[in-house]
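Request from the bench team (R.T.):
"We need a structural guess for the complex before ordering more fe (ii) ion. Sequence and SMILES attached. Just send the tokens back."

Command: build protein-fe (ii) ion structure.
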Amino acid sequence: MQTEVARERLLTKAKTLKVLPSLHDIIDKVFSVLNDQNSSFDQLEDVIQYDQAICSKIMSIANSAYFCRGLKILNLHRAMVVIGFEEIKNIITCLVFLDEILKKMKLRQDHFRSLWYHSLYVAYSAKILSARTFVEDPEKTFTAALLHDVGKIILYMSYEGYGDMLLQCQEPGRDLCVEERDLFGTDHQEIGYYMGVKWRFPDEFSSVIRNHHTAKGGGQQDMLLRLVRIADRFASHPDENLGMEGLILLKEKEKIESEIGRIMELLGMANEKG
Ligand SMILES: [Fe+2]
Ligand SMILES: [Fe+2]
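Reply to R.T.: structure attached below.
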């Protein structure tokens, strides 16, 4: 009975979580462009030129020591050319997740950091896996993976001991979702699914969020799910036997970590390790 009440309370929070009205528009437009494999540089520029926060961040990244070769970059188009199409897609995805979702939810600093670092780790691992296995578009995989644990936000906000629970559930033989369901009558997959629906994430992303800890197979849509699931397992248990994909990730571990360091530096978050 108690878990039923907890479940009801958590799912209601997921379905009614207040976000700025503009977030819907940004997510709608950005994801539809990012999700389209044929999207062009101009389409992406069209979407972001109206978002001041994203625009100014991109200008400052293009003018950072990393990209700037002495010439000051003064317009968005030039900034996007300097940074490059694929990199811009990753940066925008991270900015939407970081500024529009994580920061607005006002999580405690240590919780914010560990969710951010874990999400980035899974995103880069899944992206590398998808680029190496050719089964899914790497940028789409990156976005879906970055968002896979979005449901944890509600649990962090609602349950003081959730950070400790996450750490304890990394021990062998423990299953986070089972323990969440025992305690709350629901898990971060189901909660995240309702957030994804409310925030109008593409259906494929909501499906990944809902099923990334469950065993499923086959089908094109499930390839995305499979990549995120393996990347997520690898992030928590790099020594576990994860077959060929696990071996690829083990070999690329240093690259994954250096990519995370690089994006953190670009976003001005170099000290925000998990
Ligand atoms: Fe998860
Ligand atoms: Fe995860």
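Two things stood out. The mean pLDDT is 86. Residues 148-149, 188, 212-213, 232 surround fe (ii) ion (ligand 1) (CB under 6 Å).
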